[in-house]
Write a structure and sequence with these properties.
The chain is mainly alpha-helical. The chain has two domains: 10-75, Winged helix-like DNA-binding domain superfamily/Winged helix DNA-binding domain (Arc Repressor Mutant, subunit A, Orthogonal Bundle); 78-119. Helix content is 62%, strand content 7%. It has five helices and two strands. The protein has a two-stranded antiparallel sheet with strand order 1-2. A hairpin with a 3-residue loop joins strand 1 (63-66) and strand 2. The two termini are 24 Å apart. The model has no long low-confidence stretch (mean pLDDT 93).
Length: 121
């Protein structure tokens, strides 16, 4: 079960979860996603929420929905790389914004990143 953040729409959090699974390699190009009902039961959310997730992921070109067969992760390596870079970019921008809010210089941030990069494994 996933602990959802009340401040962020659930469908966006589920989209993010699926994108992370793709980036980590838990889901690969061509893999079939769970049915709408299966994923809704697993996450304890309304099936309409999962349906919206799948529609949005298809609109973004991340999955392909084949009527009567299911939803599949795209096999386009270029698209999968774009997903990774986009997700990383969003997080980096938010992180940098937060560091600027506490008046941390780029030089100090570089030092801290080097220090904590080795610690986090």
């Amino acid at each position: 079960m996933v602990d959802f953040d009340e401040r962020i729409p659930i469908y966006l959090q589920i989209m993010d979860l699926i994108k992370k699974k793709i980036i980590k390699g838990d889901l690969k190009g061509g893999d079939k996603l769970p049915s709408v009902r299966e994923l809704a039961l697993e996450l304890k959310v309304n099936p309409n929420t999962v349906q919206r997730v799948y529609q949005e992921l298809e609109r973004e070109g991340i999955i392909v929905i084949v009527r009567g067969t299911g939803a599949f992760v795209v096999s386009d390596e270029k698209k999968l790389k774009e997903i990774k870079e986009s997700l990383a970019g969003e997080r980096i921008k938010n992180f940098i914004k937060e560091m600027k809010e506490i008046n941390l210089s780029k030089e100090d941030l570089d030092l801290l990143l080097s220090k904590y990069w080795e610690e986090v494994n």
